[in-house]
Amino acid sequence: MIISLDARPLVTRRISGVEQRARNIVVQWAAWRLEHRFNLVLAESDLDNPDYDATFVQSLPPTFHLQVIRHHLRLGPLAHWRSLIATGTGPPTDGIRCDIFHSFSGELPRHAPAPMVHTIHDLACELDPHVRATPEGRRYRRLYRQGIGRSLYTITVSTQTRDDIMSIYQLPRQRVRVVHNGVNPVFRPQIDPDAGEERLRRHNIPAGRYVLLVGSDIPRRNYQRIWAAMKSVWQTQPKLLLVFAGRDQWPRTAIYQRVQADGLQERTRFVESPTDEELARLYRGALLTCCGSSFEGFGLSVLEAMACGCCVACSDMRSLRALAGDAVLYFPHDDPEAMRDAILDLAGDPEFRRQLRRRGLKRVPRYGWDRSAKKLLRILEYAAEIEPSSGAAEQ
Fold it and tell me: d(Cα 340, Cα 193) in Å, to the nearest integer?
């Protein structure tokens, strides 16, 4: 069977949730030595992207072929095609031939000679008022609606997003499949107690005495509310630091400016673009991780923290409850006082922290990338057996 994949998440230096999911699943498929052939499809214009980096695909076995087409994911009947080496060099073709096409994002090509399946990670563009009002939000709404009209199945990462998709787009349950995200094996409890200390010292971060926030400074992360909560926490826990870790250039962010305006720089640290290894060290060194998001499609930072043996305080929402169960301490996302109380409860109760760590580590094995890769592959294999005409009509 020939499986074609939208290769853009595999050839970029900018790594976010979509890219992490795509790479971890492809790594699993590559390790299994499957009989399937994988075409990694790019448009000719993608090679000119300044973030283009083929390092990842160059590490894949010969069953994975990088293929360049002339038009941006506009796939059509093809008389002949050429598989290209992983550098992306060679003459482009007009389209591809495949048994199934999968996109790790919500976007799908206008035409393809086979059934198509796509993945919608969350519906922030529909349900988050801040995202919905932006040009990017409008673009994603259009892409998702078009993709749903063209796809045989819509894959999503949580039961909450599945229910949101069924409700908003009026899709029947049998056309929406949940394939959870997994957790990278680098996120694990500390083996060597001294490992990673140099990274923490470099940022002047004392192990075991900080609250960790992971992610960019976007409205749904609720960093301003968490900041207000921490200012109350410091009235009784003045030595507790707040550490921000994400892809932001922090001095340009609103939360950085707020910290400067309040004159509390000595109580905060900002870590820019940590690698997975560095982020795992930060989780392991934290007193606790706090996720105060008002919207989460899955909650990867919560899963990563649990996998590292770090206790978590997080927003009380369906996606996070489904992910973490009784292994975290919940609070309302719009209540800084409740956030403060949750942080103080965990900071002041070592036994409670140990209980949450133990519960979290028991839940983590449910979210292996091997499970996700197997389930997605079964869906693609089944979809490839269905005639393209039996899928949804194009919108």
Answer: 29
Same domain, 166 and 207: no
What does the alpha-carbon distance between residue 212 and residue 287 come to, in Å, rounded to a whole number? Answer: 8
Question: C-alpha dihedral over 211, 275, 292, 355, to 10 degrees?
Answer: -60
Q: What is the CATH number of the domain that holds 344?
A: 3.40.50.2000
Each residue's pLDDT tens digit, 251-274? 999 999 999 999 999 999 999 989
E-only strand ranges, 75-121: 100-103, 116-120
- pTM here is 0.86
CA 203: distance to chain centroid? 26
Give the Cβ contact number of residue 157 at 10 Å: 24
Residue 395 lies in a domain: no
Residue 74 has pLDDT above 60, yes or no: no
Reference 294, options 358, 233, 221, 348; nearest CA is 221
Residues 89/68, Cβ–Cβ less than 8 Å: no
Range of the domain at 298: 197-366
- With bands split at pLDDT 50, 70 and 90, how would you rate the model's confidence at 109? confident
- For residues 96 and 83, give the distance between their C-alpha atoms in angstroms, rounded to a whole number: 10
Burial class (CB in 10 A: 0-12, 13-18, 19+), 389: exposed
Distance between alpha carbon 80 and the CA centroid of its chain, in Å?
A: 36
